[in-house]
Specification:
This protein is an alpha+beta fold and about 400 residues long. Helices cover about 30% and strands about 25% of the residues. The strands form six sheets. Strands 15, 16, 17, 18 and 19 form a five-stranded antiparallel β-sheet that branches. A four-stranded antiparallel β-sheet has the order 6-4-8-9.
Length: about 400
């Protein structure tokens, strides 16, 4: 039996190479046993990680598809089944002695599916005639295909760049399996040389543009936050750790310490605009399908002393993320319910806060203690000698 794996994801992960290596290992393991395995990458949502989806398909000898939030998934389901049922040609390879055999990429040609082109970029040695011979199998029958050669005038520079980019991608695949340090160093050096020679952005080279044509102001740089459009259905909201949290279309969450109100992540491109303070300082990913969302709101508080409602509201908003984590660790989260807790906050003349849970519970002592600790952090923002009785509405839906 053939083995087919359908990998469905929005792709908000950071270990792409491990996934590629696993897909490639599955294909090779089944091939050594005389079987066939394919891994199909299916991207879901408004902003899937296309690098991951395409890489899974390439490593798994399958095909890549995407389904957005604006279309019915049946179209993609039908397309995937179409791909599975119709590999038109398998075992593709250039004929022995072909001028393209030595330096063509990908080095191992993928199978050809109906409606899915196979693109190979090669640098030829010797003379190329009117056709290029390819060998493969159609079903159980060996076939030879003579692909016609069409020459394009004036495209030499473009084709050289495309070839170099394809070679970089092919070399990069050899690093998926954590090779010997010397082999890895030689591969990285080869990628770097290609990047510099052909002016390519690679994992080890970058382009820097310096504009010396004009000077603005006194020459001192000024930080400007330039907003850009973020993907549809991607939620961005401030967290209590001077960072922001992104919630994806499948409940994925990533925490980054950044300046500004959005994030740049090299794993999946730019989501919003930001200046990253120390690149990615902290990453916490939890990709789960269908998990409930947590909502934290406060009711009308009873106040005494110098405390006003606006100050209390701002203080509570800064600790909302901590309260969300308390709910996620409670039985309320798995039961997808709602609770109202009444808490009393007393700030003495020395600035110490005493928090008492007067009514309600999240269903466990540890979760209730978590809420109390979260509100004890309000001491720095509330005036001394004040008292507040606060109803908190906590929901997991």
């Amino acid at each position: 039996f053939n083995r087919y794996v359908l990998f469905l994801t929005d792709g908000w992960v950071g270990n792409e190479t491990e996934i590629f290596a696993g897909a490639q290992a599955l294909v090779r393991r089944l091939s050594e046993r005389g079987g066939v395995a394919r891994v199909f990458g299916i991207g879901i949502g408004a902003a899937p990680n296309r690098y991951l989806i395409a890489g899974i398909a390439a490593a798994g000898n399958g095909a890549a598809r995407e389904v957005s939030t604006r279309e019915h998934p049946s179209r993609v389901v039908d397309a995937v089944m179409h791909d599975i049922d119709r590999p038109a040609l398998t075992g593709l390879a250039f004929a022995n002695g072909s001028p393209l055999r030595a330096e063509s990429f990908p080095a191992e040609l993928p199978d050809l599916f109906v409606s899915q082109p196979v693109v190979v970029l090669g640098r030829y040695h010797g003379k190329v005639g009117a056709t290029v011979a390819l060998h493969g199998r159609r079903g159980g029958e060996a076939v030879r295909i003579d692909a016609a050669v069409h020459r394009i005038e004036g495209a030499d520079a473009l084709l050289r760049t495309l070839w170099a980019r394809a070679k970089v991608e092919d070399l990069d695949t050899s690093l998926w399996h954590a090779p010997d340090p010397e082999v890895a160093a030689a591969t990285i050096e080869a990628i770097t040389v290609l990047g510099l020679e052909h002016r390519l952005v690679t994992p080890y080279t970058a382009l820097i543009a310096v504009d010396t044509s004009r000077t603005i102001g006194d020459g001192d740089p000024k930080r400007i936050f330039q907003p850009v459009a973020q993907p549809e259905d991607t939620i961005v909201y401030p967290s209590d750790s001077a960072g922001i949290t992104l919630a994806g279309t499948t409940g994925a969450e990533s925490n980054y310490t950044v300046e500004g109100a959005s994030v740049t992540n090299p794993s999946f491109g730019t989501v919003g605009a930001s200046i990253v303070r120390e690149h990615i300082v902290k990453t916490s990913l939890a990709v789960t399908q269908g998990m409930p969302q947590v909502f934290v709101t406060s009711g009308r508080a009873q106040l005494e002393g110098n405390l006003d409602r606006r100050t209390l509201k701002v203080a509570l908003r800064g600790h909302r993320e901590h309260l969300r984590r308390c709910v996620e660790a409670s039985p309320l989260y798995s039961n997808e319910g709602s609770r109202t807790l009444e808490l009393e906050l007393v700030v003495d003349d020395d600035g110490r806060v005493t928090v008492t849970l007067r009514e309600g519970s999240l269903g466990s002592q540890s979760a209730d203690d978590c809420v109390v600790r979260a509100l004890e952090g309000l001491a720095k923002t509330l005036p001394r000698g004040s008292t507040a009785t606060v109803p908190l509405h906590l929901r997991a839906l």
